[in-house]
From TrEMBL:
Residues 47-359 form the PhoD-like phosphatase metallophosphatase domain. The keyword Transmembrane helix applies. The chain crosses the membrane at residues 407-432. Residues 1-16 form the signal peptide. The keyword Transferase does not apply. Gene3D superfamilies: PhoD-like phosphatase. It comes from Hondaea fermentalgiana. Keywords: Membrane, Signal, Transmembrane, Transmembrane helix. This is PhoD-like phosphatase metallophosphatase domain-containing protein. It comes from the Eukaryota.
Length: 448
């Protein structure tokens, strides 16, 4: 009798518990949650969407490289053709293979494929298409490391705005560039979406990252904002200082005049709770810099990078991963507080009073890899504050000789597999030739 009773009661009890758990997971929170990520290739597996949906964010923010629309030669024959016919392109991207820009047709096709991804469809149903925001970086803009020279930038902007579902009355449809500010959580949080592609000059010490029209808009936005938190989203990292000026990597430091102008705007504006989100680098990173003047004045600016939704440093050949590990352990960037090299997505959790924000990085298993809470009053300058210098979390930068030593180590690590391949191939060829020659000699008839 008891067994039959349990047989009838248990299934209903299990179902009730499942419903309760689902309701608890989807119940409204007292604060506000934003999840974000970047570097997402439609031709690769996209394993993070179920984990993002499980976090039930109130909004999703694309951090750039939302698709990969540009391309480069994949065969030896194609690469040799480029070497012969387009020396300027080879010189521009050396030592990497050259890149070719996407056509409007390629952009439209890849955006359509991303929209149709089942995991992304689940996210759109969870947060609502109107709560998806974002920016582009180079590969979804249309060309690797691209700027104002990209010939299809107008068509690219149209394709991007359609993908994001931007309403037709939004000013982004009528101006040059995708920059925008978006109020979330009833105005308690403001997203400030920067466009570091459409108007960007060629990289130089005096080059401009944003263009004057965007600078004017940004100054006005930072001056007038009343939000508790102001989140500036950039496709490339803002805080890191470069290894050597000749590096091909992208960040704001490659345009020091623009970077200085940006940091000056932050310190002179009335904006509170200021920090950066960024992508591009195929890893996650938490950084901070102190803008200081004297012994007492200090303004902390954090940056959270989430990059690598479908590919990352951990998915590259092992020696490249090892070299990046060495970079962070032996010669870490001065701004770096923590980092993670595998697939990841980021999260911002604002408390119910919007007095603090918790930044998190999740891995492909849904485990937290980086976590840090910042109070809003930590992230605003005092009235009249003027920054005299900027000091990274780890202190002043290392000597150039140390940087040169690391670069030598880096090239040694990345070139080792290539050199090893040719060495082994050469040895095999030598022994094969020796074996063949020996066989031919032994087969000759002896003279009487």
């Amino acid at each position: 009798m008891v067994g039959k009773l349990l047989l009838h009661v248990l299934p209903g009890l299990v179902l009730a518990l499942e419903i309760a758990a689902t309701a608890a997971a989807s119940a409204p929170r007292s604060g506000f949650r934003i999840d974000f990520g970047s570097c997402n290739n439609v031709n690769l597996s996209q394993p993070l969407w179920p984990l993002i949906v499980e976090r039930a964010p109130d909004a999703w923010v694309w951090g750039g490289d939302n698709i990969y629309a540009d391309w480069r030669p994949r065969t030896g024959e194609a690469f040799l053709k480029v070497l012969k016919e387009d020396q300027e392109l080879v010189k521009k991207y050396f030592p990497q293979p050259p890149w070719y820009g996407a056509t409007p047709e390629i952009l439209a096709t890849l955006y359509k494929r991303q929209l149709e991804m089942p995991g992304y469809q689940d996210l759109l149903r969870t947060v609502g298409a109107e709560n998806v925001h974002g920016i582009w970086d180079d590969h979804d803009y249309g060309i690797n490391d691209g700027g104002s020279e990209y010939e299809h930038r107008e068509a690219s902007q149209e394709a991007f705005l359609k993908f994001m579902g931007v309403p037709q009355d939004d000013p982004r449809w009528t101006r040059a560039g995708i920059y925008a500010d978006v109020d979330l959580a009833d105005g308690r949080v403001k997203l400030i979406l920067l466009d570091n592609r459409y108007h960007r000059d060629e990289y130089s010490a005096s080059g401009d990252m944003l263009g004057e029209e965007q600078w004017t808009w940004l100054e006005k936005t930072l001056t007038e904002t009343k939000a508790d938190f102001n989140v500036l989203v950039s496709g490339i990292q803002v805080l890191p200082r470069m290894f050597l000026r000749s590096t091909k990597g992208e960040n704001w430091e490659r345009m020091p005049k623009s970077r200085a102008r940006l940091m000056k705007l932050l310190t002179e504006s009335s904006a509170q709770g200021v920090f950066f989100l960024s992508g591009d680098v195929h890893m996650a990173e938490l950084m901070s810099a102190n803008l200081t003047c004297g012994d007492n004045a200090r303004f902390v600016v954090p940056e959270m990078t989430s990059s690598g939704m479908t590919h990352s440093w951990k998915t590259y050949p092992r020696l490249m991963t090892w070299a990046m590990q060495c970079a962070h352990r032996i010669l870490p960037w001065q701004e770096t507080m923590d980092y993670y090299l595998d697939l990841n997505f980021g999260e911002l959790d604002f408390d119910e009073n919007f007095s603090q924000v918790t930044m998190r990085i999740f891995d492909v298993r849904g485990d937290i890899r980086i976590e840090r809470t910042w109070r809003a009053d930590e992230l605003k300058p005092a009235a009249g504050f003027q920054a005299c210098e900027e000091v990274g979390f780890r202190g002043p930068p290392p000597a150039k000789t140390i940087e040169l030593g690391f670069v030598a180590l880096w090239f040694a690590a990345t070139l080792t597999p290539v050199l090893a391949f040719f060495a082994v191939a050469g040895m095999l060829l030598y022994f094969l030739m020796k074996l063949c020659c020996g066989a031919q000699t032994s087969s000759k008839p002896k003279q009487a």
